[in-house]
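Re: Re: ligand-bound prediction request (bumping)

Still looking for help on this. To restate: I need the protein modeled with 4'-deoxy-4'-aminopyridoxal-5'-phosphate bound, output as structure tokens. Inputs repeated here so nobody has to scroll up.
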Amino acid sequence: MIEQRRILATPLPGPRSQALAERKLAAVSAGVGIALPVYIEAAQDGILRDIDGNQLIDFGSGIAVTSVGNGSARVIDAVQRQIADFTHTCFMVTPYEEYVAVAEELAKLTPGEHEKRSALFNSGAEAVENAVKIARSATGRQAVVAFDHAYHGRTNLTMGLTAKNMPYKHHFGPFASEIYRVPMAYPYRWPTENCLTEAFAEFTAMVHAQIGEENTAAVIIEPIQGEGGFIVPPDGFLTQIADYCREHGIVFIADEIQSGLCRTGDWFACDHEGVVPDLVTTAKGLAGGMPLAAVTGRADLMDAVHSGGLGGTYGGNPVACAAALAAIESMRADDLCAKARAIEDTVVPRLKEIADRTEVIGDVRGRGAMLAIELVSDLEKKTPYPELTAAVNKACHARGLVTLTCGTFGNVFRFLPPLTIAPELLDEGLGLLDEAFDEALGATAAGG
Ligand code: PMP
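Reply:
Sorry for the wait, this slipped through. Here it is.
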């Protein structure tokens, strides 16, 4: 057990972390960037402990992964038992129950009462790629529609689906063909008050004019966009897209890799509007930190693929599946959806206070424990303020608060604490954020 308390034993990063940073430089590709070079030796719930004895408050969950918290007794127990039994056979060679049980759980939990099937993979990007494969195979069509500000991964097909050049796509082309991008319903930056109707009209017009409905295999969307800036479309947008897809025989894929599994206060972000996607991709929070991802969806689509068409050596690894069953059990037993909603109730008023006091926050948004603020240097013009975002982030890190930024313009702060974080730590972290704003604003005012 790690005491749920922040400790600053050294300036960050401490001497041991600095020594490891030297080794990293000599051994690990420079292409693998690091947000906060503090090397971790243990973690539990809201605390990460580093190798210098510092204890940091975690507002990132390893990018929305450890929703059930590091150190979950259920996950540890399940993983230890499974490792002792066996670690791998390859489900495609000689299968095992845990994989089937995860698929059964996903069928129950994902939106909609229809008959479903799942296929399991190792990473979010792999799940997205396979969702596209399934949609193409089932429809016999090729085109895929993705949105501005989208993030779907770093493999070749998913880079093509991802919107932002730097750092995800830069110098890595050429990208896959038959990917079309449409505007995202981004209320804060939509030029008029009519974001919902205009964004939907632009979407349908572009599909019609540039692709043709009958050539469109799939539309993929994050119900709340993640890396692109925690952009929440207006209520009704997802429903309209889903209805349109149904009308035209287009597969509607909800990428719930970041937003799914209790993170937004519902099992899935789509539940908020009662939207039922044809296919849902999950990863991140699914397996308590073990690598596991899934495509879950309509049985007729999932079963349209020829036998052997989906898979991979490690997909649905038994240890990861055991962890997922335990994580899902924790989500249910500990009502982590309610915990996510309680986090929203605590955090949003505090973010609004900072917004009122500082006049550099243009938008406070998100749902549950997937929350963000967008920083601007001019509230009227909504000018992105990435420099201040970076400065606040740095000031949080120096105080032992692990925060993450995101956004196409690098000016969004996102909050993704483990859903099991202690209320006192959440409160302390928000106090540190307050201080970080004061420090960063002081520095920018002084020209620092
Ligand atoms: N889709 C979304 C919405 C994501 O947030 C991410 C990861 N940030 C991915 C796909 C890719 O997942 P992975 O990094 O596991 O490949």
